[in-house]
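Internal tracking record. Fields below are filled automatically when a chain is submitted to the structure queue. Please do not edit lines marked as system-generated. If the sequence contains nonstandard residues, flag them in the REMARKS field before resubmitting.
Queue: standard
Priority: normal
Entity type: single polypeptide chain
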Amino acid sequence: MLTPVTLRGSLVSLEPMSIDHVPDLCSAGSEDRSTYGYTNVPDGADETKRYVEGALQSLEKGRALPFAVRHLETGRIVGTTRFLDLEVFSWPPPWPPGVATGPSPSDENPPTVAEIGSTWFASSVQRSGVNTECKLLMLAHAFDSWHTVRVTLKTDARNERSRSAIQRLGAAFEGVRRAHVPASDGGIRNTAYYSILAEEWPAVRTNLLARLHRA
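SYSTEM-GENERATED OUTPUT FOLLOWS
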């Protein structure tokens, strides 16, 4: 199992999510919800508790590493994000291909590939540099500490706001997976996929640092 870590920057601190974060996440999600049309953001205390419990179950199973995002200037919890879809490649590859992966991710066997997702923020900190620094901290951990070879980011194909934010990171568009999963609005979601490779990380890091400097 991967040991939960705290990732700290100048604007935010990403804390390992715990059940104690439920009230603060509930408060963060209760601000203006008009930007959450395509995003799964819990509404109210009961939904937030189930949301956190689900994230912690994924942590226990080695499938995710969830964070609560603390805004350092105010001290408030302002949202959440996580690593998910963590996979360790098996070397040499198994035969036939695709029937098995390597060991579960752990400190001794860090993820070969990862995804950053399940990200949402209170409306009061959107477009403030918070998301940019969260991505910088997480990508640095993935590429510099785990030596991950690919980080995936994905979103509802209709979510132009989210797609623009991902593209501004410098991620490459891979395509749209049709009829992928249930959508947050009750329909069936087509999912837009993006990725950053290890060799692209230095340029992405330079871009993110420049954007933070301008924020």
